[in-house]
Amino acid sequence: MLAGRRRKIPRKAQDLEGKTSVDEPIQPELLRKRLAGSLFSSPIHYHPSIDSTNALAKALAGQGAPEGTLVIAEEQTAGRGRRGRAWVSPARANLLFSLLLRPFLEGDRVFVLTMVLALAGLKAVNKICGVKAMIKWPNDLYVGTRKLAGILTEFAVREKKVDWVVLGMGINVGWRPDVPQQGGAPATSLVEEAGRPVSRNALLIELLTEFEGLYKDVVAGEMERLYEEWNRNCLVLGKAVVVATEKERIEGKALRIDDCGALILEEADGNQRRILTGEVSLRLRI
Question: Residue 240: which H helix or E strand, with range?
């Protein structure tokens, strides 16, 4: 369902105006059972409340925690997105988690994993909720013109090789902010889009299952299918955009996302620029 269309929403979904629409708690034991034999079956660090799942996952990485470590919380008191922006979410409303990975990758290819998690997210959202989401480069999922989810990628490099990567993701399941935060886009939630309750446990299990399959392709160097798929599901391609980096503001037409997760943009003079994700932001040019 596109966010721009008017539709009748059940009373429970209407509770999004200042209330949450999720009753089911995250169930670590169910996750362990359903993910048994997968990369993410153990260890699972579950917290009713935590400052930031990414912060804990990074600390665990420094302590030598294994690949596949999952950190999940009902609430974050200091959750954040890219560029230091806060990620606000009430307790037991949304899906808030971080993954620790230790891939054999060059440092300049780490943002491939951002795109792969975004792909896994949109696949899971469609399968569990019947909602069609798209990737808004560099790190968001949108439904129509409204933000559904965000990804924060943090990593460490040793001798030009990735030591560890932490992928943090927040998905609006049963709540979304009424007012765009810090100049960002309007938000939506899965309950609002689907018009029915959504199981966060089922969504996470499906998302991690999808991600593991895609991640195996990355590790094996089988990137062609992934490259085609994330371009096919990218919201901004073919559109006029404005990209702001720490040093400059760039306008042009978004052409494609390359096999490292970088955006290829064509400027007015026909010159093509390659912009690697990181501390950048993108908006459509009106």
Answer: strand 240-244
d(CA 169, CA 166): 10
Cβ neighbourhood burial of 9 (10 Å; 0-12, 13-18, 19+) = middle
Residue 50 and residue 115 in one domain: yes
- pLDDT reading at 17 higher than 50: no
Provide, rounded to the nearest whole percent, the portion of the chain with pLDDT above 90.
Answer: 76
142 plus 249 within the same structural domain: no
Same domain for 206 and 273? no
Q: Is 130 contained in some domain? A: yes
Residues 250, 129 share a domain: no
pLDDT at 85: 62
Residues 255 and 177 in one domain: no
pLDDT for the residue numbered 177: 87
Residue 60 corresponds to which tokens in the numbers above?
Answer: 């665990």
Between the two ends of the chain, the Cα-to-Cα distance in Å is: 23
- Compute the radius of gyration of the chain from its Cα atoms: 18
Q: Answer whether residue 155 shows pLDDT above 60.
A: yes
Side chain identity, residue 153: T
For 191, the domain range is: 11-232
State the DSSP H helix or E strand holding residue 152, giving kind and residue range, or none if neither.
strand 146-158
> Average pLDDT, stretch 178-201?
88
Q: What is the pLDDT confidence band of residue 83, given thresholds at 50, 70 and 90?
A: low
| Residues 276 and 202 both lie in one domain | no
277: domain CATH number is 2.30.30.100
* 3 falls within a domain: no
pLDDT at 216: 96
Contact 123, 210 (CB under 8 A): yes
